[in-house]
DNA sequence: GCAGCGTGGTTCAGTGAATGAACCGGGACG
DNA sequence: CGTCCCGGTTCATTCACTGAACCACGCTGC
């Protein structure tokens, strides 16, 4: 976002956060990382983002400590994983206001299959579900593609646990 | 954000949400509205946003039903108020990772003064606190300004309830 | 050895959006 | 009638995003 770090915004952690993850594409990159995407090319094709933009974003995110580079690509750090409540809140807002048929992706506690409420609590066992214990799967608002998509998309549209790397 | 609404992102409510509130400045405008800002000029001076950009943003947000125009300016609709969990999550992330001295703004249940936890629950009475019942006040990470700021900033830096209009 | 290919980028010209400063017009006030 | 406040608009400049082409490296098969 490159906000000019103004005096006025010194006391706003929202502005500070948006300087890091407020730029176009950034939260979508983070979302794909939660889905298990790790490789440069997979981010590029999944998001349809220009490769130059992706380079810029990933570099900035690595510098900020949201991602780290390792042998098989870019993975979320704990700081990046801490963005999950934000991603979840925005997804929920989008579901409620733009998906009349119901949520496009449902979140469940992988251990017992209980749905997660707005606070991220399992309706089955009542516990706060950690990110790696969260299963994501197509919900009632999900619209299946007619033409079968690429392998990465196929993997992302199967029920799977967050952060589980996509391996083909 | 004006994402090109691609086939690939049809099934992502996060992308849909970011089309509405993902543009630069948008969430900061929403934040100021939670703080009670309602007038065009106040948004402009508080955020330091170019007036032309502010016009564009507010127009888009009114069209999307996030704000509504009324006699005393722009106020959040229920759809806009529903963005509070997102704003709170991002603020919390910014506080944790960029404000070592502690949160810049603390959130309390106005009725009993209990602090809110990460899920928005009052630690005093255990209830989920609604937005208008939330009090926001400077926290330990807050850095007071030396030169006394404008009246609107002064009002925003006092403990106050969310959505309470700023009147001078 | 080398031709092909997958992967992870970089380069660069074109374009559209953000910026900021100046300007405008209506209403309230005196 | 003049002035100020308020909520914008206009416009030239600058900036960042875009998209397509290109590049470098390592691996595989022949």
TrEMBL record, chains A, B:
Name of the protein: Transcriptional regulator, HxlR family
Keyword presence, Zinc: no
Domain HTH hxlR-type as annotated: residue spans: 12-102
Domain of life (superkingdom): Bacteria
Entry's Gene Ontology molecular function annotations: DNA binding
Keyword Secreted in annotation: no
Keywords, alphabetical: DNA-binding, Transcription, Transcription regulation
Database matches in InterPro entries: HTH_HxlR (IPR002577), WH-like_DNA-bd_sf (IPR036388), WH_DNA-bd_sf (IPR036390)
Organism the protein comes from: Asanoa ishikariensis
One Pfam assignment: HxlR
């Amino acid at each position: 976002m490159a906000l000019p770090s103004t005096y006025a915004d010194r006391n706003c952690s929202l502005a500070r956060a948006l300087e890091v993850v407020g730029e176009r594409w950034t939260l979508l990159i983070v979302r794909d990382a939660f889905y298990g995407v790790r490789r440069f090319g997979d981010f590029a094709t999944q998001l349809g983002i220009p490769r130059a933009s992706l380079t810029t974003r990933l570099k900035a995110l690595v510098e900020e400590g949201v991602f780290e580079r390792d042998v098989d690509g870019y993975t979320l750090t704990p700081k990046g994983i801490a963005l999950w409540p934000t991603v979840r809140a925005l997804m929920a807002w989008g579901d409620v206001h733009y998906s009349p048929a119901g949520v496009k992706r449902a979140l469940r506690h992988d251990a017992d299959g209980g749905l997660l409420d707005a606070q991220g609590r399992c309706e089955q066992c009542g516990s706060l579900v950690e990110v790696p214990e969260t299963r994501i799967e197509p919900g009632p608002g999900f619209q299946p593609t007619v033409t079968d998509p690429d392998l990465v998309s196929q993997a992302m549209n199967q029920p799977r646990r967050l952060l589980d790397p996509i391996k083909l």
